[in-house]
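From the methods appendix. Each design record in this collection lists the tokenized structure first, followed by the designed amino acid sequence. Records were kept in a plain field format so they could be parsed without special tools. The example shown here is representative of the layout used throughout.

RECORD:
FOLD TOKENS (87 positions):
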């Protein structure tokens, strides 16, 4: 009697382990072939090991604000002269 219960539990646990391993292998293959291309999913999972994420230069907040266009502020005479000379 205890032998059949133990064997049943062993079969159930072994089935769950096999299913879990199969799902993990499937996720890994799909990640490598397709999902790792999406920046949103890489950021969501915190994956910084992809080569694409390492090669992109990171901008600091001050660099982004310095490069941002100033639409609301009129240009000064010095800025207008500097842009006219550079073109």
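DESIGN:
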């Amino acid at each position: 009697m205890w032998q059949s219960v133990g064997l049943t539990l062993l079969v159930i646990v072994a089935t769950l382990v096999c299913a879990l391993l199969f799902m993990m292998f499937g996720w890994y293959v799909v990640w490598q072939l397709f999902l790792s291309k999406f920046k949103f999913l890489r950021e969501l999972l915190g994956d910084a090991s992809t080569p694409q994420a390492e090669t992109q230069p990171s901008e600091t907040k001050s660099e982004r604000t310095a490069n941002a266009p100033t639409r609301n502020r009129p240009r000064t005479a010095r800025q207008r002269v500097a842009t006219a000379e550079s073109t």
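APPENDIX NOTE: The first helix runs from residue 2 to 33.
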